[in-house]
């Protein structure tokens, strides 16, 4: 597997480093997923997030109830309407997450070298001496010397808001731990992570199923983030559950890899899932620090070659409280782009961070700069070699469209698609120009009423690097004539011009289906 520096285009002109970034309608080809919460749920703030570059809104059900998230979602809809920016919705499940319950919500101070007891007795009140947890099997899963981390959203063991514990002894169902660092835990709920230990909890809990079948169905969620995915069967079971929930049969499942167990079964999980989220917070605890970079590069490479979106988390933690990222964080974001990330997921940075809009904007600018030096030529050759010969018909068309666009220096690739698959295949080859995915609606029926599909497919491209959707007029369904396709193409070109990505005399590559054949054509625009 190639190392990331090989995907850096050389030589980089030193003067280009000093040149100011040019404004563009697309802040970056790499997408940004923003988690909406206390600091980012007003219409005004969400509008700012959308304008800054957020294309997927994540709702984390580890925190707050469905009513709270529904209020936030209604604000998101209002913001989408006012900004005219498309945004997809992602529901993040709780999954096999252990939590400390602090009913009093009083701050809990823990002193280094002291002892604290973790107990499944939730009738106990949380204090400096005892922490009630929502799982009664911890005592059976851990042994003396094991490591446990506790904190609110962010926890590394080096912060004053999270704590690193070492198991001292097991007493019945209680686990006695040595406190390794002084910390203050504030809030009503803290996440508990036991490093490299199998926890016998279901990936899709009864609470998750209830939320998906009510809130998820009502809001026709585009993506399901399946927390703590450990096996391919976790994804299959989730898909089977979604298939019985009407429109949610179209919802894409993103397997969230959070521990070594998930990494061990990564290849099988990737085959089953629609995309992958690499949850580096928990993985960074489960893995030795010196191994973190390696799993990232390996996992992103596999996702890229499979043509499935890869999302990376935990990149600018310090921006939760600061207006600028650290040097290491800025470099980390850029390396994520060079390694092949489709999207960056912001968690605490936007959920409870002080600067959600500025964080999205900053990450977008870093991504944009990294994309300028991404070695597309090497990436393209590597992908073609991996795919091998003979290529499938669709793969051949997709790679040819990208090759043609680069050779003629096209300003954009326009792809007609009904399922979104053709557009995603084009994006897989990482063209240097945006891909406008024109989703052609399909007429469908459930035997009670007729409706048009297409909205799901359009929004689901909002997490794929370089892919920008446009939903065609439903009066021009997929089974249309070539004359109709020409009229849709004109609308797509006008849309590109209005965005400022297409100008007079530009060349545009168009990929579309004519009858049974797929065609790649090059158009040179007139005045």
From TrEMBL:
Cofactor (UniProt): K(+)
GO terms of biological process kind: glycolytic process
Pfam families in UniProt: PK (PF00224), PK_C (PF02887)
Any one GO molecular-function label of the UniProt entry: ATP binding
EC number of the protein: 2.7.1.40
Catalytic reactions on record: pyruvate + ATP = phosphoenolpyruvate + ADP + H(+)
Domain Pyruvate kinase barrel: 29-360
Gene3D superfamilies in the record: Phosphoenolpyruvate-binding domains, PK beta-barrel domain-like, Pyruvate kinase, C-terminal domain
Domain Pyruvate kinase C-terminal, first and last residues per copy: 395-514
Uppermost EC category: transferase
Domain of life: Eukaryota
CC per GO annotation: cytoplasm
Family assignment from sequence similarity: Belongs to the pyruvate kinase family.
Name by which UniProt lists this protein: Pyruvate kinase
Gene designation: LOC100801466
